[in-house]
Amino acid sequence: MQIGELSERxxxxxxxxxxxxxxxLLEAARTGKGWRVYDEPAVNRVLNVRELLGAGLTxxxxxxxxxxxxxxxxxxxxxxxxxxxxxxxxEQRLAVVDARVEELRRHRAELVRRIARLRAESADTEExxxxxxxxx
Length: 136
Description:
By secondary structure, the chain is mostly helical. The protein folds into two domains: 1-79, Multidrug-efflux Transporter Regulator, Chain: A, Domain 2, CATH 1.10.1660.10; 82-136. Helix content is 67%, strand content 3%. A hairpin with a 5-residue loop joins strand 1 (29-30) and strand 2 (36-37). The longest helix has 52 residues, at 83-134. The radius of gyration is 26 Å and the shape is elongated.
């Protein structure tokens, strides 16, 4: 199948499919005219890559599980291709995600603090302006 059909069957854009190929996550044969041609397992491979990227993994992370990418999505989690290495990769990515969550919590707390301060200053200004208008 050509890239357009693979895109339609997986929901991945043509650009994404070319990116997966550049990252070594997908392979394509070439026609005499240089067009990409994909085999049937490429559908599962692209679906699995999309799911893993959606879970927060990077292309580098996904390279650890390349031997499993052709499996159907529901069978993918049972892949026997080095479970200790895959588990370590998942745990490392989870640690990165947890660190980002903590950083976002700090950013949120700082924004809440700044908003509260601005609202308090705004309320003080409004009260002051009201007192000037009323002559108090």
